[in-house]
Design brief:
The structure holds two protein chains of two kinds. By secondary structure, chain A is mostly helical. Chain A is built from twelve helices and no strands. In chain A, α1 crosses α5 and α3 packs antiparallel against α7. Chain B has a single domain, classed as Pectate Lyase C-like (3 Solenoid). In chain B, α1 packs antiparallel against α2. About 2% of the residues of chain B have low confidence. Chain B has a 24-stranded parallel beta sheet that branches. By secondary structure, chain B is of the alpha/beta class. Helices cover 16% and strands 35% of the residues of chain B. The chains are: A mainly alpha, B alpha/beta. Chain B: InterPro entries: NosD_dom, Para_beta_helix_rpt-2, PbH1, Pectin_lyas_fold, Pectin_lyase_fold/virulence.
Chain lengths: 273, 432
């Protein structure tokens, strides 16, 4: 029950907060700009340059914003003493963090729904070609990214003491998972024997939510063949009837593990002090 | 399946009543052919005929509607070993699992038209056969067989000056396969759901025009040829396999490739070890990779339109090609003097291609956000780049695609999202 109370409070705070609306405006403008700026091609179904650009832009923006909002939101509770007050009640760290996650998730998903809703309407009235499948694809793609990165954000918030640390932590995670990921692996793995290369890349992909969601999405949209023969089995597997359920399970594992670990380490650290 | 069952029942029937019924149910074709004099016409009334027939004189065979020829004990269902034979309006159903061809032609000046062929192997084999005309054919393979087990739709070996047109081929290995053959003319055909649509090996002066190739592993494979003409073809949706390509030019010299529409393929146009080819006015649209060069020189790639390909082009060890004056959908050019060409050049960095060539598992980073960041950091030497010094400002190919707009479903779905989100915001923010 505590979880729901925390979540409700988070939703209310969120929608009365100006950051939610600045994020809403930013993301709506961003979605519109990309969908309306197409390179002169009439249809935009499947994996095209438009879809590719849109996916990359989303990958740049959404994880960063989610990480910042989520981690700072938890860190602020610690800084201004709200958590100190709440902890005098029988409220565990775990239910506090889960409440935060649910509340923020509802806030962010609402913002995404609004952005895609407005963009879809505008595309329709301006006569821009936008297929229903593309719209739903991006909506789900963005929502899944938000849900996973929010888990990480909450964990960062649980581990830090103030919002500056939260900021640094968030940006580091974003920079590693989104920006320098290929560079990191290409530089390290080029030294290793070739036989290990594939296994390490395979395992590492599951360790990076941005890559995980991107690769799954590309395979689902029918672009699996660009990854080459090495990943042929993946493509067959993702497009089999197990593909989506297993992906959902992996996403749930990501969220529960990050939040669980966050709560656990936070508790251990407080006990030590 | 129904036909197959019918044949099965018929066969059983013959088994039991061999002496009486066999004559009326299924007629052997060979005696009928033997009775026909050279130059005469053999009319086949509706019914089923037993094939395994050899034609060794110039005759004309016309089937009435619903004439079906079934395989004989062994060998091709119909074998043409003469010149000037015409066969038309016949269905041939060959469900055997042997290596025998369904129709075998080893003669010149023959004509096959309006044939409907179902085969588990090679549909029509031309062996050292010249000046034949094959048209309005429908060849269907067995889609339950793997690509390697199937045979080619139409297979030409050492055969020159043949014409193949207006035919439909599905579920075979290669739709039209030509080897060691010269000056054949292939136009207006459609090949789908096969390995390669059109496959040329060591041919001379083959003409491929107005053909279509959809949902195959690859659209057209042109290999080891000289003087091939590839014009006005449509190669689309060849993308399921990791080897998928729209059009491959491998070890090709002096080909003319023009006015083709190549879209939705894994790689639109792949040019490897090819030299002195002229590639112009093609439309490459919405492929994962538009054009890819490998070890190719002295090709002229001009006035093509590259639109909405995820990666427009990749080039490696291919610096001596003329790749000027193309239209690149993602290029923002500036035309200062108003001649229709941009003064800002367009360049494609081979970084990703050379990296994944050495370490194929890194292909998982195709178009990853971090990969683009990396490409900015490490440029390959610029002399290896595919570059266009004077890109066109406007698309040279007038697209006939009608303007599409979003469907009403998009609007409904968007409105639902919009109402749901605003309701949640309102409910969340209001004071209780």
């Amino acid at each position: 029950m505590h979880i729901i109370t925390v979540a409700k409070r988070e939703i209310k705070l969120g929608f009365r907060n100006s950051w939610t609306y600045s994020f809403l405006i930013l993301f709506t403008l961003f979605t519109m700009a990309i969908l309306l700026l197409q390179s002169g091609v009439q249809s935009a179904e499947g994996y095209t340059d438009m879809t590719g650009t849109m996916m990359n832009m989303t990958l740049y923006l959404l994880p960063l914003l989610t990480l910042l909002l989520g981690s700072v939101s938890v860190a602020i509770e610690k800084e201004n003493g709200h958590w100190g007050l709440l902890s005098t009640y029988a409220l565990t760290r775990m239910s506090f963090l889960w409440g935060k996650w649910i509340g923020l998730a509802i806030n962010l998903l609402t913002v995404l729904a609004f952005s895609f809703g407005v963009t879809g309407c505008i595309a329709f009235f301006f006569g821009k070609p936008l297929s229903l499948s593309t719209l739903i694809f991006f909506w789900i793609f963005s929502s899944v990214l938000v849900l996973i990165y929010l888990g990480i954000a909450i964990a960062i918030g649980a581990l830090v003491n103030n919002r500056w640390q939260a900021l640094i932590g968030s940006i580091s995670i974003w920079f590693i998972t989104v920006i320098i990921w290929p560079l990191l692996f290409i530089s390290i793995l080029s030294i290793l024997p070739y036989s290990m290369l594939y296994t390490i890349i395979e395992v590492s992909t599951f360790m990076n939510p941005a890559e995980l969601v991107r690769i799954f999405a590309m395979m689902k949209i029918g672009a699996g063949s660009v990854f080459g023969p090495e990943y042929n089995q993946w493509v067959t597997w993702v497009n089999s009837s197990f593909g989506t359920p297993v992906f959902i399970v992996v996403v749930i594992i990501w969220i529960t593990v990050t939040i669980g670990l966050g709560a656990l380490i936070w508790e251990r650290r407080d006990q030590r002090e | 399946m129904k036909k197959f069952l019918a044949i099965l029942v018929a066969l059983l029937f013959i088994g039991f009543n061999q002496t009486i019924e066999a004559e009326t149910e299924q007629v052997p074709l060979q005696p009928l052919i033997d009775e026909t004099k050279p130059g005469d016409t053999l009319y086949l009334p509706p019914g089923e005929y037993i094939g395994g027939a050899v034609i060794n004189k110039p005759i004309h065979i016309i089937g009435d509607d619903q004439v079906t020829i079934l395989p004989g004990k062994k060998g091709p269902v119909i074998q043409v070993k003469a010149n000037q034979v015409i066969i038309e309006n016949i269905s041939i159903i060959d469900q055997r699992n042997t290596n025998d061809e369904t129709v075998y032609i080893a003669g010149d000046d023959n004509e096959l038209k309006k044939l409907n062929i179902k085969t588990n192997g090679v549909g029509i084999q031309l062996f050292e056969a010249n000046d034949n005309k094959l048209y309005q054919l429908k060849i269907t393979g067995n889609k339950n067989l793997s690509l390697a087990q199937r045979g080619n739709g139409i297979d030409l070996w050492d055969s020159d000056h043949n014409t193949i047109h207006s035919s439909q081929i599905t579920d075979v290995q290669d739709g039209v396969y030509l080897e060691k053959s010269s000056q054949n003319d292939i136009y207006n055909n459609i090949v789908t759901h096969s390995r390669y649509g059109y496959h040329l090996m060591f041919t001379n002066k083959t003409t491929l025009t107005e053909n279509e190739s959809y949902y195959n592993v690859s659209g057209m494979m042109v290999m080891g040829t000289n003087g091939t003409v590839v014009k006005h073809n449509e190669l689309k949706h060849n993308l399921k396999s990791v080897q998928s390509l729209g059009l491959l030019l491998f070890d090709v010299k002096n080909a003319q490739v023009a006015h083709n529409k190549i879209s939705h393929n894994k790689v639109g146009l792949f040019i490897e070890n090819a030299h002195k080819n002229d590639i112009t006015l093609n439309e490459l649209e919405q492929n994962f990779v538009g054009v890819q060069f490998l070890k190719s020189t002295e090709n002229s790639v001009t006035k093509n339109a590259f639109l909405a390909n995820v990666v427009q082009g990749q080039a490696e060890r291919s610096s001596d090609n003329d790749t000027e004056s193309n239209f690149w959908g993602d290029h923002i050019g500036v035309d200062v003097n108003g001649d229709g060409y941009s003064q800002l050049s367009y360049q494609v960095d081979p970084f990703y291609l050379s990296l994944t060539k050495e370490y194929p598992p890194f292909q998982i980073y195709f178009q990853a956000p971090g990969m683009q960041f990396l490409e900015q950091l490490f440029h390959a030497p610029t002399d290896q780049w595919l570059s266009d010094q004077s890109p066109l400002m406007d698309n040279p190919i007038k697209s006939e695609t009608e303007a599409k707009t979003s469907s009403i479903y998009v609007l409904c779905f968007s409105i639902i999202l919009f109402i749901a989100s605003t309701t949640i915001i309102y409910m969340g923010a209001r004071k209780k």
